[in-house]
Design a protein that fits this description.
Blueprint (H helix, E strand, L loop, with lengths): L6 E5 L7 H15 L3 E8 L6 H6 L4 E4 L8 E7 L3 E8 L12 E8 L6 E8 L7 H18 L14 E2 L47
Parallel strand pairs: 1-2
Antiparallel strand pairs: 2-4, 3-4, 5-6, 5-8, 6-7
Length: about 210
């Protein structure tokens, strides 16, 4: 087993634009890159179509965000190695983030030695240019949750975090009814309400290992 991992990420932009032309270019590009781990944003997953499987082909374990847009758009992770535990963090941190499937998808990937298990994270924050406040909150919230997963010291964060476990890879989207619990906007604040408390934490200790 090599000590190197090939990682690719791409915003697929759904099936918008000249999709058939884009599809062939993306398929050829992934074949040439031969990635081990892939993070895809704005991927389409419905009962009838899995865009990630269509583009990557066989040989990948795939997990999808559950709380997707009405057209099936969301984020996805693909891995050549088995994916064990998976979590989805809802990033609807203020009321105006509604209408877009902002989320962080976190997968524990069982890579072979000498690397061993790792966390692979696909982060999709709000995209709107005026939403700087929300993107800052979303970044800190995701970091908070990830630090907790890898066993950082408890008690250093000031906000509650909730997430939803995701079933094993390739479960039909029609069987996924639960939506992740949102972090209340009141727990995070509103634009102009002052600095984010978690940003003041410095010297955060961390330990190796994944804890779910």
């Amino acid at each position: 087993m090599s000590k190197k991992i090939r990682v690719a990420t791409l915003n697929l932009w759904g099936r918008w634009g000249a999709w058939e032309d884009r599809r062939s270019v993306i398929i050829d590009g992934f074949k040439a890159l031969e990635p081990d781990l892939v993070a895809l944003q704005e991927s389409i997953r419905t009962d009838q179509y899995d865009q990630v499987a269509d583009l990557l082909g066989d040989g990948f374990h795939i997990v999808h965000q559950q709380a997707r847009a009405d057209d099936g758009m969301g984020v996805s992770i693909a891995s050549r190695w088995p994916i064990e535990e998976t979590r989805e963090l809802d990033l609807h941190v203020t009321p105006r983030t509604a209408g877009f499937p902002c989320a962080t998808l976190i997968a524990e990937v069982h890579t072979p030695d000498p690397i061993g298990p790792l966390l692979f994270v696909n982060h999709l924050p709000s995209w709107q240019p005026p939403f700087e406040h929300e993107r800052e909150l979303q970044a800190v919230l995701a970091a908070q949750f990830i630090e907790g997963l890898v066993g950082s010291a408890a008690g250093m964060w000031s906000w509650p975090v909730t997430s939803t476990p995701i079933p094993p890879p390739r479960v039909s989207a029609s069987g996924l009814a639960a939506k992740p619990s949102a972090v209340p906007a009141s727990a995070i604040g509103t634009p102009g309400s002052g600095p984010i408390p978690a940003l003041a934490n410095q010297g955060r200790p961390s330990r190796r290992g994944i804890r779910w």
